[in-house]
Amino acid sequence: PFDVIVKLVNPLSVPLTGGSLCMEGPGMVKPSSVKIKKSIGPNEEFRETIQVKPRRAGRREIIASFQCKQLCNVTGVVEVDVVNESKN
After folding, report:
1. What's the predicted TM-score (pTM) here?
2. What is the DSSP secondary-structure string of 17-70?
3. CA dist 81 to 44, 47, 60, 67, 84, Å?
4. How far apart are CA 59 and CA 38, in angstroms?
5. Distance CA 80, CA 62 (A)
6. Tens of pLDDT along 30-61?
7. By CB atoms within 10 Å of each CB, which of 29, 62, 69, 82 scores lowest?
8. Which residues, 6+ apart, have CB-to-CB distance to 85 below 8 Å?
């Protein structure tokens, strides 16, 4: 298992409200959604840490998407190489 940190900085001059963050990663993360209860102020940074437990080794993608009342379709993708952990 490892942690994925999703970071978003509000680029607008108004607060972001009613936000939600969705994450998925085939073979790694079951699709999940997190409602963001507080507003994200102008130039404010939001971070969410999600633990990932891969089921298979190999190259995988983790996809995060954010939407709120002021923005939609904000998406980030990262590729990771999952390796089998050898136990001595």
Report:
1. 0.81
2. -S-EEEEEETTTEEEEEEE--S-B-TT-EEEEEEEE--SS-EEEEEEEEEE-SS
3. 31, 23, 6, 28, 10
4. 35
5. 8
6. 788 889 999 999 999 999 998 888 888 889 89
7. 69
8. none
Rounded to an integer, what distance in angstroms lies between the CA atom of residue 22 and that of residue 31? 7
Sorted by sequence, the CB contacts under 8 Å of residue 18 that are 6+ apart come out as 68, 69
Q: What is the pLDDT of residues 54-88, one digit of tens each?
A: 888 889 899 999 999 999 989 999 999 988 876 65
Name the residue with tokens 């404010």.
Answer: 44
